[in-house]
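Fold tokens
===========
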Amino acid sequence: IGRDRDRYIDKWRERRKDSIFMELLITAMILTSLLSPQNPDLMEAVKPVEVPAELTVERIAGEDRYETAVNVGHFLEYKGNKVVLASGENFPDALSAGVYANHIGGRLLLTGKEGIPEKVQEELSRIKPEYTAVIGGDKAISDFGSPYIQESEVIFGKNRYETALEVAAKMPGVKMAYASGEDFPAALSAGPIASKEDMPLLL
């Protein structure tokens, strides 16, 4: 019985391979016929997008995420000296912090849990912020003894969701943006819209 079962399984696998191969072959033939010159409408839809000659692309980067955030501030040429600090080790607080930074006309800088990276310290020394907000509690940022953030306003809640609510309370208005707090892509894309409309981002 065991040998018969094994032979049956082997035959089934071979037939399945043949079936998959035929499915792939038929799919390839259909795509080839659809994308042929005899289908100009579809060819027009899938042709590469032409980038306007006047469009320029500029890369803003640093050696790590912390320096990149500093360089973004340089690129945007902020005239004020307000700073919002958020964790660079996890994404949730930084999402709502970025919208809040835009609201107050300040720059968003990232920091580590145990200390402020050297490049960020240098930037804080350079701009001498008149107002600094730290987004997140000691689970996210615990180095509150730093001279750069001793006089800061700390905005936080029991978790990422309550922290976002506390940040929202600093931005009075009737409109709010909502995005998932479990993964960053959706909230990341929602950030620019929330900033443009000057509304808080809730998770």
Notes: The longest strand covers residues 82-87. Strands lie at 82-87, 107-111, 131-135, 153-155, 177-178, 201-202. The CA atoms of residues 95 and 188 lie 7 Å apart.
